[in-house]
């Protein structure tokens, strides 16, 4: 898109019915392109998708610019590196929440097949663009989930709640990331016969998230450690740490 372009501030003419339908088709195509691996345009596409109901001329022009960018980079490659990341687990503090949640256990599917192959490592990066929308001041969640080296899941989505601080918006992003890890680790991979080598490593770039009360937790066979999120307690399989330390 154009530099410093904010589509929510666009005051150009509204598109007629045919052009609006054309715009919606382009957004649908770009969303599939992102789903197929073009993570580099995920934020731009999700931002332009906000205006599907009432697109303007400026929105269409900048959407076409995204397509032109793809046309100019047709030889881009998605490298799939299966090597595990070198992460120092000793940099992750441990917190015992068993007295608040006694008897909690990880949910294991009853029809889970026998695991095959080597254990995999799950790494999560969560962040948020605080108050990215200049009108509503809502933030945008950005999440990348890696299984060993390659990215497997990604998300760029506007947050539903209106947060008043960077900490709040990044905390919402972390909550969504933990839910995604739970779905991936506790069900999808297990049903494919794949097990992880331990808790998923969740990283965020806000050092304030290291406060004990807000730490995402880890479940092991010996004990369960938890974090109470704003929306309520959840049982997930995550460590949490700042991106500035512990990740190489």
Describe the model:
- With 248 residues, this protein is an alpha/beta fold.
- It folds into two domains: 7-71, no CATH class; 89-242, no CATH class.
- The protein contains four helices and seven strands; from the N terminus they run H-H-H-E-E-E-H-E-E-E-E.
- The model is unreliable at 209-239 and 243-248 (pLDDT under 50).
Fraction of residues in helices? 25-40%
Radius of gyration: 20 Å
Mean pLDDT: 78
Q: Within the largest sheet, what's the order of strands?
A: 3-2-1-4-7
Summarize the structure.
The chain folds into two domains: 7-71, no CATH class; 89-242, no CATH class. It has helices spanning 17-35, 42-48, 57-71, 166-191; strands at residues 122-129, 140-147, 151-158, 200-204, 228-229, 232-233, 238-242.
Keywords:
single chain, 248 residues, 2 domains, five-stranded mixed β-sheet, two-stranded antiparallel sheet, 4 helices, 7 strands, disordered C terminus
Write the layout of secondary structure elements.
Layout: H1 17-35, H2 42-48, H3 57-71, E1 122-129, E2 140-147, E3 151-158, H4 166-191, E4 200-204, E5 228-229, E6 232-233, E7 238-242
Parallel strand pairs: 1-4, 4-7
Antiparallel strand pairs: 1-2, 2-3, 5-6
Helix pairs in contact: 1-2, 1-3
């Amino acid at each position: 898109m154009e530099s410093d372009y904010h589509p929510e501030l666009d005051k150009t003419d509204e598109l007629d019915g045919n052009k609006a339908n054309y715009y919606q088709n382009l957004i649908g195509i770009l969303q599939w392109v992102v789903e197929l691996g073009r993570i580099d345009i995920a934020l731009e596409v999700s931002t332009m998708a906000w205006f599907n109901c009432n697109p303007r001329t400026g929105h269409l022009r900048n959407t076409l610019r995204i397509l032109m960018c793809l046309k100019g980079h047709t030889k881009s490659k998605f490298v799939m590196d299966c090597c595990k990341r070198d992460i120092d687990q000793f940099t992750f503090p441990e917190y015992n929440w068993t007295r608040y949640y006694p008897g909690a256990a990880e949910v294991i599917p009853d029809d889970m097949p026998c695991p095959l192959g080597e254990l995999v490592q799950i790494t999560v990066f969560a962040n948020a663009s605080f108050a990215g929308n200049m009108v509503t001041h809502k933030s945008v969640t950005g999440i990348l989930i890696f299984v060993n080296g390659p990215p497997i899941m990604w998300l760029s989505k506007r947050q539903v709640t209106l947060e008043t601080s960077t900490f709040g918006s990044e905390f919402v992003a972390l909550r969504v990331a933990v839910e995604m890890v739970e779905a991936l680790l506790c069900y999808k991979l297990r049903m494919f016969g794949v097990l992880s080598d331990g808790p998923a490593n969740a990283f965020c770039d806000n050092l304030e998230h290291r406060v004990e009360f807000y730490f995402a937790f880890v479940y092991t066979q010996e004990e369960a450690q938890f974090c109470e999120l704003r929306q309520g307690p959840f049982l997930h399989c995550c460590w949490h740490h700042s991106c500035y330390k512990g990740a190489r």
